[in-house]
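Would you be willing to look carefully at the protein I have copied below?

:::
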Amino acid sequence: MGSLSPAKLLVVDFTKKGNLTPGTSCWSSAANEIRHALEEQGCFIAMYDGVSSELHKAIFHAADELFDLPPETKVQNVNEKPYHGYVGQMSYIPLHEGLGIDYATTLEGAQSFTDLMWPNGGNKYFCENTVSFARTVEKLDHMVVRMLFESYGVEKYCESHIGSATYLLRFLKYRAPELNETTLAFPSHTDKSFLTILYQNQVSGLEVRARDGEWINVEFPPNSFVVMAGDACKAWSNDRVLSPNHKVTMDTKGKETRYTAALFSFLSSNVQVPEELVNDEHPLQFKPFAHVDLLNFYNTDHGRRSQDILKDFCGIAA
């Protein structure tokens, strides 16, 4: 079901729906492979055909349209949750811009963002396509969550987890560097989400650091997504899953802009280690916490300087 790509990431084919039916041996095998990949690399590549060629074109046309808006419009994208709104025009990351649509799988969330960006009449095409895309990727998120929970033997918590998930869709732009300009488009970091699912255009640049310390250049085959664990997933798994450091580096020879549509899952319920994942070999590592509190902690000086954010935020002292 899965294989190692040249980039040494597991590739799981979700396009063969009949082979990935819950309860089948193929499903169980893929679930175990996914768990192992998330533990060792923190991510894997999902071949997933939910995004049609029309929607693919529409979502990157939407990105073009969005980033072409005047700066004074884009900065209206604010959110009380840290890192959910506009990020851009920063001297230390000059190649990067990002905008966020909170509650992106709901029509209300997408409409609210659209009306903010296009206050004079909205943009129905943008709104409809972003909701369609977010809901399509949400289905992949649900499948991965089910497989991960089942592989750990804690599937009884799956429905409540999915029921508490909300989704942030971020459009990310990385322009090509000019002569003598930095090639680091976004510095090394971990995500604060439970899962992050990335979809990009044809321009590469993502690098992920595996548990063994090796940096992996990630290539996205056509119709593929990168599914990555965030800090909340690492906490939930009692430190089994890796929340990988990752960064974006742009090729100096390339002249094209890299666009990524990234769906981040966050929980409205507490992030808590299932009791089944605590034993003598794996003593409890983290206290339960509200997901938004992790974001707020990261937004402090202490949080930003932290070398081990979960340990500093909610770790249980040995």
Remarks:
- Residues 3-7 have pLDDT under 50 and may be disordered.
- The chain has one domain: 2-314.
- The domain at 2-314 is CATH 2.60.120.330 (Jelly Rolls).
- The chain is about 35% helix and 25% strand.
